[in-house]
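Justification of resources, computational component.

The compute hours requested in this renewal are based largely on the per-chain cost of generating structure records like the one below. Each record pairs the submitted sequence with a full structure-token output. That output is archived, and it is also reused by downstream analysis tasks.
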Amino acid sequence: MESSSWRESILDQIQRRNKQQFSAFEDLISAHNRLFDSHAALRQENEKLRSERLALPRGSIESQGAPERISILESKLLAQQEELTELLRKRGENAQLVVDLNKKLQEKADQLKAAEDRSV
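The structure output for this chain reads:
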């Protein structure tokens, strides 16, 4: 009986040691297992999405929602062109005004000079 009691004692000690050492890492092991499962699921989903993307006709991904985007961009372009046209028209008017004012300034300078010449 002695031989079986020391064996049971050793077995009991080993089981207690294993339980103590395992319990310290039990949370870490379960978290690792969940992470591994999540990784596997994400890898499968990634492969599925990649195969679906490759199965789509070329350019169809980029063209989704393109008509709305194109019409928005066209309206913005039209508004910018109208604004540019208006600014160019105003610039032309201002340039003509500068020419007219320079002409008047030159006329006034000539009149002033003529008046000075007469007074001397």
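The mean pLDDT is 86. The chain has two domains: 1-55, 75-120.
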